[in-house]
């Protein structure tokens, strides 16, 4: 990493809005070949880039209401972007959205419909989507952001790619991050590759996610819905991914607690899972820089993860089970060379006879 990558207080930038401040990550070297991009909330790149693009193209206008379904951090990011650009925000919230996030949304001026408790992640997601469709039928002036499907959410990550190009040494790079909606890992990897950089993309998935074929499993303790999905997402482009790791809750917890214990970094479960996977990847590929995407802080996991830190497994003794096909997939931690192949059948959208090609989208200047 270049010396002086972080500005001194004497030359710090005065930002015009909080979104400019929180979207930029802290780059922290963990081990020799592993660097963490630690965000307060990485979804600001997706929400801010999408809103700017929609306004520029005339697809939305100031004062209009933007609506979407969210399991947490995207909701706050969208509310912040709407606050900046004079738009209204309506969130259909998952049962996983906690009281702190609800308070932030309400103070930011967003209106919130919270779904009742569900028996499964799939039911929760389906109920939220149905509710959004009912809202749109009643209020056709609402604009549905469709964070899971609209490629506009990839656009803001080009700015992040430019930041990394300016801050990290040249050479091959492995990006390790939770797949989730596909926007962050996919948008970042595509932008870096288009700049000419050799990039391996390593995706993190929970068991029970349809996105990369683990829907036959369940993880009763899992509270990391944001890194996987029980329904197909159009923004996930499987052809971008080189390797996939599937980790259960206990391994993600080990990674998150280990990150705090060893490096004093307080981050969420998806970051913990990515950190654990990146450490293993770096051992196998010494000399290659590995970038861990730390999507958010650990605050919303405090009670169910960090207060239980004495139960956490020792990361030093954990290793994945390498597999050659999805038929061999097993908990608690499996890894497979995906090889930029197409989506598994269950992860394809109903209207797709085959996986959609990677879209060409207009990027922010």
Automatic annotation (TrEMBL):
Signal sequence segment:
none
Which Pfam families does this UniProt record tie to the protein?
PALP (PF00291)
The portions of this protein that span the membrane are none
User: GO:BP terms for this protein?
Assistant: alpha-amino acid metabolic process
Q: Where is the Tryptophan synthase beta chain-like PALP domain?
A: 42-282
Region annotation Disordered: where it falls in the sequence: 345-365
**Which UniProt keywords are given for this protein, alphabetically ordered?**
Pyridoxal phosphate
- List cofactor names only: pyridoxal 5'-phosphate
Protein name according to UniProt: Cysteine synthase
């Amino acid at each position: 990493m270049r010396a002086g990558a972080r500005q001194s207080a004497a030359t710090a930038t005065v930002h015009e809005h909080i979104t400019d401040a929180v979207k930029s990550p802290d780059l922290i070297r963990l081990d020799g070949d592993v660097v963490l991009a630690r965000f307060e909330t990485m979804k600001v790149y997706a929400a801010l880039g999408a809103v700017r693009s929609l306004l520029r193209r005339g697809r939305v206008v100031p004062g209009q209401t933007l609506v979407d379904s969210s399991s947490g951090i995207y909701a706050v990011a969208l509310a912040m972007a709407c606050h900046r650009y004079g738009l209204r925000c309506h969130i259909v919230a998952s049962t996983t959205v906690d009281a702190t996030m609800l308070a932030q949304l309400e103070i930011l001026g967003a209106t919130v419909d919270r779904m009742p408790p569900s028996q499964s992640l799939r039911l929760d997601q389906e109920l939220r989507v149905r509710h959004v469709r009912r809202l749109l039928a009643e209020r056709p002036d609402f604009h549905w952001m469709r964070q899971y499907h609209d490629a506009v959410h990839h656009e803001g990550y080009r700015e992040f790619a430019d930041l990394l190009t300016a801050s990290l040494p040249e050479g091959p790079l492995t990006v390790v991050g939770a797949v989730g909606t596909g926007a962050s890992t996919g948008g970042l990897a595509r932008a870096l590759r288009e700049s000419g950089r050799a990039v391996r993309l390593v995706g993190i998935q929970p068991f029970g996610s349809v996105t990369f074929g683990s829907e036959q499993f369940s993880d009763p303790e899992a509270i990391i819905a944001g890194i996987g999905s029980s329904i197909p997402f159009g923004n996930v482009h499987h052809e971008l991914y080189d390797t996939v790791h599937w980790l259960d809750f206990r391994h993600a917890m080990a990674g998150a607690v280990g990150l705090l214990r060893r490096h004093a970094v307080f981050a969420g479960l998806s970051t913990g899972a990515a950190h654990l996977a990146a450490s293993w990847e770096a051992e196998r590929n010494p000399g290659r820089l590995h970038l861990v995407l730390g999507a958010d802080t650990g605050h919303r996991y405090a009670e169910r993860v960090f207060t239980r830190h004495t139960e956490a497994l020792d990361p030093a003794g954990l290793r994945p089970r390498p597999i050659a096909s999805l038929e061999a997939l097993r908990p608690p931690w499996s890894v497979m060379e995906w090889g930029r192949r197409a989506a598994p059948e269950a992860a394809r959208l109903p209207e797709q006879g085959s996986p959609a090609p990677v879209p060409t989208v207009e990027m922010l200047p």
